[in-house]
Amino acid sequence: MYLGLDIGTSGVKAILIDGRQRIIASATSPLKVSRPRPGWSEQAPDDWWKACTAAVKAIAKQKPKAIAAVEGIGLSGQQHGATLLDKADKVLRPAILWNDARSFAECHDIEAREPRARKIAGNIPLAGFTAPKLVWVKKHEPRVFEKVAKVLLPKDYVRLRMTGEHASDMSDSSGTFWLDIARRAWSDELLAATDVSRDQMPKLYEGTEATGRLTPQVAKAWGMPKRPVVAGGGGDNPASACGIGAVTPGQAFVSLGTSGVLFVSNERFMPNAARAVHAFCHAVPDAWHQMGVILSATASLEWLAGLLRTPAPKLTAALGKSLSGPSPALFLPYLSGERTPVADAQIRGLAMGIGHETDAKILTHAVLDGVAFAFRDSLEALKAAGTDMSRVMAVGGGTRSELWLKIIATALGLPVDVPADGDFGGAFGAARLGLIAATGADFRKVCTPPRIARTIKPEARARDAYEAAYGRYVKIYPSIREI
Question: Which of 368, 364, 300, 312 is nearest to 338 (CA)?
Fold first, then answer.
């Protein structure tokens, strides 16, 4: 048996699989986010541990014999979070999360101190990344900064509690802005630019490698007498790629969740920092990946649902399933800033083309279009980095809308494959990595794609209209940036 743990922002999910990768049991435990000031986002690291324990014990209650047979555990988790520990591994302050925007000014500080930063990292520093957060802590909480002995990412703090080891994997560490991603090693230059050192970093592993075993105490508490190995694991998106089978060059998926991701696996490092492409190590050896990241995907639809006091599924259902063209209104989905391609934490959304005739249907359609155009922006940025993709697989809660998938396929000009029912997210990918670490299996044979239920093709009759609408969409940001 093999266990996957995904330490997300809203909760921890645990999935137990057998040697044939059949899901035996699953459980979730919720988490809360603290927002002490506008733009801030924090969590208590001990809450991650409590949620993991609760999820594992829920599975143990369902399947005690199966949980006792666990031989490998994989970890997935929200990326970029800064978990600061002292010499005794005591948490110094609440973890600053990926969607915290307070350190946007510190990104400029890093590049001022190290002009080669983008070239070394292959990425643009963003407020969500870990390194700018440490610069902010040094500037605003110097007493805390002086005590920092280790900086861990969220899933790696859970690993510490599980194994006693300070360790991380290549994919998650890529999002710190301290990694020389081409070399798959910490960069002394980037560390120095934020006044931290290698001694404060965890040891690096591939996502498929074993990083340690459960301590006897945790193994006993979790009902796992075999003291399973714990794999390096991966950041949430690379781990999801392992779950969906996107581990060989050219395999791609579009994730339509709270945030949105256009992900493609690469055989080499292919950066495009100028357009805020996330070019990171993959969670499997000798592989890299690129991501276009948008911060408000289904979050944009949920925002509109709250505004109109109508559930999101009801809003989308009112539009039907056929697609003849785009909405007459345009929507820029930058509700909490944006990453690809503008890397602007302070920009905000915009709706335009609103008239007396504008109703809930027009606004809903505009939001669906705007998110699809944001994915198109990411596609264009990936193409500029030398990536070519022929199709994408769709995952995430937003894929329940048939119309939204048609809009995305049409805006991208690519067929969108929809997998058969199943769970292919970060927890499942983590479980696969746990299996590989425990057995030494070839990741290519383990991380295979699921069966495709159907394929959504671009709507030919709407294609030209969507191209014209996207042409208008791309002019919005440059026009309003200064305003």
Answer: 300
Residue 458 DSSP symbol: P
Query: Around 128, how many Cα atoms within 13 Å sit in the side-chain half-sphere?
Result: 23
Rounded CA-CA distance 222/224 in Å is 6
Pair type for strands 42-43 and 72-77: unpaired
Query: Which residues are designated catalytic?
Result: 236
Q: Distance between CA 348 and CA 330 in Å, rounded?
A: 14
CB 23 within 8 A of CB 3: no
Contacting residues for 30 by C-beta, under 8 A, at least 6 apart = 10, 11, 51
**Length, in residues, of the chain:** 483
| Torsional class of 44: left (φ above 0), alpha (ψ -120 to 50), beta (otherwise) | beta
What's residue 425's pLDDT? 85
Contacts of 269 (CB under 8 A, 6+ apart): 122, 181, 182, 279, 288
Using an 8 Å Cβ cutoff, are 262 and 297 in contact? no
Distance CA 173, CA 154 (A): 11
Where the chain has pLDDT below 50, the residues are none
Are 417 and 394 in contact by the 8 Å Cβ rule? The answer is: yes
Nearest CA to 438 out of 293, 227, 217 is that of 227
pLDDT in tens, 298-316: 999 999 999 999 999 999 9
Residue 365's nearest CA partner among 309, 419, 300 is: 300
Six-digit token string for 352: 């335009």
Alpha helices in 284-425 (DSSP H): 298-308, 312-317, 360-384, 402-412
**pLDDT for res 345:** 82
